[in-house]
Design the sequence.
């Protein structure tokens, strides 16, 4: 079934702006007792709020979209999900108590995450997990986890290794070898960059294994970084990490947690960094989630005044002088529209051209359906062909058309040379150099949690027992009960060696 | 009893034989008893491989000459006729493809594909046929493609060039038939190397779905058929386009 695609702004009656307008029922969480409670979504002042009623703690409210028009428009992009090949749990108690995935879950794993350690060498004030420094995944567990993923998904675009700080795992490089399976196209690593900044040989190992690095980089200045990540010269560390990644030729994604009033004015700078450095393929903004070890206590925090996906989009438009526009971004249809926004950008001779400016909406949705990464399958080829024909048949009407056509012609000549046939991976690599991506991924916290978003979640933690746990459900309902993490809190590790509970003085983050 | 080799005592010239199908044809022809000469343009390493492989079976020579170099081609043919006596078999294999949709295809793209694939076939054939007509014997085999006889998703200049080769084959076969020279066209479907390697996965899957044998062709299989087509055993076939595609 295809839902209508709405491109015209939502119209509200004049007095609707001054009072609450009921939109829909929801099920959320009481931020005080964490019980699941009924709620409603209301529109007020052009924004969308989640109002919940707890029998014990009364009414609570949280902002869930800073732009009612974006919210309403995003609901028209819903696409039926694709289910995994196999489910690990049955439907017994209902969502979110049957996670693993149960047959009621409405999306497979676009991005499975394997947490290989809960050791970390930072203590970030905004951290949304609980790093107890007492667990390193064994090789046997890791293989079981990978086997489970392949059993559920068949083929995987990406498997992400995370933590904790995954580069602290004593067998980290061995795990990269174990993840090298024909069913897995790429392995990415989410890291704070400390090891990368100080260990170039390690970067070379990553490059040799064609690993993608997701580098946590929230801002380009120390004051904001210290607020989010704690004391230390983070800026110097990040600069060294970027230099090492670039020098080693590691394909990189910048991951920026964005907190209202802290670093939301740095969004444009992050976008410019993406544009300026060829080795940076994508940029992921994560609106701050106020839950977990650090995030739950991060302040100041007003649930009615947080940054949401459309707020990031608006800031990107305002802070890049129009290089990006609101209309360049769309929700990711495969997930819940409240969870992801994104745009793809084509690198042209003189800048970047967002895909939605030269591909019509329906074909664009075809490209981004059910995945977060571009893959040259039939849908992609059809969409690009249609775009080329459309641009060509109307060329001359806009100088942008010819610019895009020139770029696409050059791309095809590189990807399909006359004198030799390239392997698929080589072609993909060339393609990666031509397209950049900006994602916005909104994790939920106790204030913004909604059951329907969980049901469509496509970012899953992969467990050694084969379960796939929707990210926010795991963080809020399962993580603290995970038997792997039970036990006394351990000592943080530095490159796989205990640091005697104290930060390593040689660690540049603490200098 | 010793088995008779298909091309014993023949002199064969294969264009574009530093890799892929051309390389395989040169190797099979050599193993079937032919002295093989072949051309290449840039791939020195590939040409060395072809030469070494062919020389395991007999005499072989490599010429670095483009099919668009008419003078160079004539010099090569003269050299072969002087040193080896004749060119009995010509395989017009050299060709290129370019994955480019109509909207992005420039005149230079069209000219380049048509030049190498069609004009190159014409120039080489003309250079070799002079001696064949003089000797009133010879065989020409042009390498076409399934895309020349089926409606398949492929670049239009490549399809047009291969269809032109089919037409060229028929007209040339008629024109030189009075001298006993046979001209045929071999039209492979998707092969394990060459154009097929550049095909996106879903297009390959689509081909396999419609292919009775459910697989792409092996170079060796096509080269073996080529050896039969140019052999004296196949003396009654001319002007024909022979498709080898696994049953598409």
Sequence:
């Amino acid at each position: 079934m295809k839902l209508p695609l709405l491109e015209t702004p939502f119209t509200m009656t004049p007095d609707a702006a001054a009072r609450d307008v009921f939109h829909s029922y929801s099920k959320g969480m009481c931020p005080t007792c964490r019980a699941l409670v009924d709620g409603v979504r209301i529109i007020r002042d052009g924004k969308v709020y989640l109002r919940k009623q707890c029998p014990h703690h009364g009414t609570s409210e949280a902002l869930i979209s800073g732009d009612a028009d974006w919210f309403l428009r995003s609901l028209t992009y819903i696409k039926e999900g694709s289910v995994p090949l196999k489910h690990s749990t049955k439907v017994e108690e209902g969502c979110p108590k049957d996670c693993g995935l149960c047959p009621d879950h409405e999306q497979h794993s676009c991005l499975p995450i394997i947490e290989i350690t809960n050791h970390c060498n930072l203590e970030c004030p905004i951290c949304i997990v609980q790093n107890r420094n007492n667990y390193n995944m064994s090789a046997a567990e890791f293989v079981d986890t990978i086997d489970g993923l392949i059993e559920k998904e068949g083929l995987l675009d990406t498997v992400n290794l995370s933590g904790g700080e995954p580069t602290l795992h004593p067998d980290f490089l061995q795990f990269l070898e174990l993840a090298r399976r024909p069913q897995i196209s790429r392995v990415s690593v989410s890291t704070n960059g400390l090891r990368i900044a100080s260990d170039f040989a390690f970067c070379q190992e990553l490059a040799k294994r064609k690993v993608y690095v997701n580098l946590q980089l929230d801002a380009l200045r120390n004051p904001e970084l210290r607020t989010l990540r704690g004391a230390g010269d983070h800026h110097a560390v990040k600069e060294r990490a970027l230099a090492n990644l670039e020098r080693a030729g590691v394909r990189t994604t910048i991951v920026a947690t964005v907190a209202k009033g802290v670093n939301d004015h740095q969004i444009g700078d992050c976008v410019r960094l993406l544009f300026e450095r060829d080795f940076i393929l994508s940029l992921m903004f994560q609106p701050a989630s106020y839950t977990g070890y650090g995030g739950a206590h991060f302040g100041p925090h007003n649930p009615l005044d947080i940054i949401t996906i459309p707020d990031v989009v608006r800031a990107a438009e305002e802070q890049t002088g129009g290089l990006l526009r609101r209309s360049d971004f769309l929700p990711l249809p495969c997930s819940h529209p409240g969870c992801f926004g994104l745009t793809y950008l084509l690198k042209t001779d003189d800048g970047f051209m967002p895909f939605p400016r030269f591909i019509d909406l329906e074909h664009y949705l075809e490209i981004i359906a059910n995945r977060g990464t571009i893959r040259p399958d039939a849908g992609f080829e059809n969409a690009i062909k249609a775009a080329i024909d459309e641009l060509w048949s109307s060329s001359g009407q806009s100088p942008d058309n010819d610019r895009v056509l020139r770029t696409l012609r050059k791309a095809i000549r590189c990807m399909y040379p006359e004198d030799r046939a390239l392997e698929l991976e080589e072609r993909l690599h060339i393609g990666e150099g031509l397209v950049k991506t900006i994602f916005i991924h909104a994790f939920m916290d106790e204030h913004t949690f909604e059951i329907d978003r969980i049901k469509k979640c496509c970012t899953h933690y992969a467990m050694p027992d084969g379960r796939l746990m929707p990210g926010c459900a795991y963080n809020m309902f399962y993580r603290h009960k995970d038997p792997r993490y039970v036990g006394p809190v351990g000592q943080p590790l530095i490159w796989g060696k205990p640091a005697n509970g104290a930060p390593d003085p040689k660690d540049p983050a603490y200098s | 009893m010793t088995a008779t080799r298909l091309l014993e005592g023949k002199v064969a010239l294969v264009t574009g034989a530093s890799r892929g199908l051309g390389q395989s044809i040169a190797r099979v022809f050599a193993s079937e008893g032919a002295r093989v000469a072949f051309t290449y343009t840039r791939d020195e390493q590939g040409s060395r491989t072809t030469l070494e492989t062919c020389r395991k079976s007999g005499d072989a020579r490599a010429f670095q000459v483009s099919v668009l170099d008419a003078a160079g081609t004539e010099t090569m043919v003269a050299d072969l006729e002087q040193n080896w006596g004749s060119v009995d078999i010509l395989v017009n294999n050299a060709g290129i493809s370019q994955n480019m949709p109509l909207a992005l295809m420039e005149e230079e793209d069209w000219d380049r594909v048509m030049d190498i694939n069609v004009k190159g076939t014409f120039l080489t054939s003309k250079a070799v046929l002079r001696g064949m007509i003089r000797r009133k014997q010879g065989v020409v085999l042009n390498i076409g493609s399934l895309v020349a006889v089926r409606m398949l998703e492929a670049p239009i200049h490549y399809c047009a060039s291969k269809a032109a080769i089919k037409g060229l084959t028929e007209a040339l076969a008629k024109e030189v038939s009075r001298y006993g020279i046979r001209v045929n066209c071999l039209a492979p479907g998707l092969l394990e190397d060459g154009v097929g390697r550049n095909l996106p996965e879903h297009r390959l899957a689509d081909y396999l779905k419609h292919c009775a044998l459910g697989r792409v062709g092996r170079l060796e299989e096509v080269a073996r058929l080529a050896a039969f087509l140019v052999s004296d055993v196949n003396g009654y076939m001319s002007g024909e386009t022979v498709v080898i595609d696994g049953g598409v």
User: Anything to note?
Assistant: The mean pLDDT of chain A is 88. The first helix of chain A runs from residue 68 to 74. The two ends of chain A are 57 Å apart (CA to CA). The interface with chain B takes residues 376-378, 381, 385, 388-389, 391-393, 405, 408-409, 412-413, 415-416, 418-419, 421-422, 424 of chain A (CB under 8 Å).
